[in-house]
Structure formats: structure tokens, C-alpha cells
Amino acid sequence: IKNQKQKYFACSEGLGFNLFNQPVALSITTVKKKNQPKTTKVFFNSHLQFSDLISQFQWPEFSDISGGFDYQGVLILPTEGKSQNSLQITSDLQGLSVNLPEPLAKKPYEKLPMNLNFLFGGALNPQLMIHLQNKMDSLFLFKIMNCQLSFYAGNLLLGQGIATIPDNQTGLTIGANLET
Known about the structure:
The protein is mostly beta strands. Helix content is 4%, strand content 57%. It is built from 1 helix and 12 strands; from the N terminus they run ββββαββββββββ. Strands 1, 2, 3, 4, 5, 6, 7, 8, 9, 10, 11 and 12 form a 12-stranded mixed sheet that branches. The longest helix is centred in the N-terminal third of the chain and has 8 residues, at 50-57. It is globular. The model is unreliable at 1-8 (pLDDT under 50).
């Protein structure tokens, strides 16, 4: 624990566990900056074989996706105030193969930057955002009902653009902005 000019800091490194049959390395940092809420950040990185997801969640409909990829992320947990928690995962998806028609296909040697951000806790409803460079953008809203996370509304936009959800929309909208 250190105090550097009104900044309180605690750190643990070298921690780990297994997730989907792969080791996950993680480190935990808690920071308290002057006039800001204390925040704990859990940094992690690992590798994921897509077949492990298919097996774990029984997703036979995703059989056109194969291979594996490295990923890294951070879980941000404000421990004071009403800020939302955030789980952010990034990857270049190199090693993942998608056997779909163009422009949705992906070869395992290609890099396709992926950003996933899940906001939860605090005063707002949970939301999930996934961005795949120029191939897909999505936004999903959830509500917590009877202590369970329930899907409320979503927009899956294939191709270029930013997925948005108009006020009062429910259900899933799928759109495309693809070059031919």
C-alpha cells in the first residue's frame, strides 16, 4: 500500500485461475484518488477455444465458428458512490475462423479487433456493447426482474455503423449496412 500525493494504492499480482479449460492470469489494483471514488480494477488475460464455449453453453448453432484467440480485459469496480461496474474485454480474434459468406467470413490468420463492454450495478440497468471493427456493432439492454437478468431490448447491426436503441423499444432489431 502506497500513498503518493493523495493517491492510495494497493496491488496484488501473480494471481490466477482456470476458465473454460484455460489458465487466466490476473492482477488486482485498488486506487483512491482525491475527490474520486475508490475503485478496484481486476486486470486479466487468457486464451479461449471457441469449442469450449460451444460445449459449455450447448451452442450447436455456432458450429461455423472455430479456433481460439487470446484476450485481455479489466473488471472495474467502483467501491464508493453509485457508478456502474464495467467488464471490458478486448482481442484481435487472431486464430478464430468464421465460416460464413463474405463480408462476415473471417480467416484464422486475420486480425479483427473486438471490444466488449458490459456495464452493470449502480442506478442504471445493465447493458452489453460488442463492437467488431467494421463487421458488427451491437447494444443489448437488460432489466433485473425478480433477482434475474432479463433481456429487454437490443440492436445487432451487421456491417458499418453504431448500434442504438430508441426510447421505448423492446425486443431485438437486426439490421445490416453491408457493402456488396
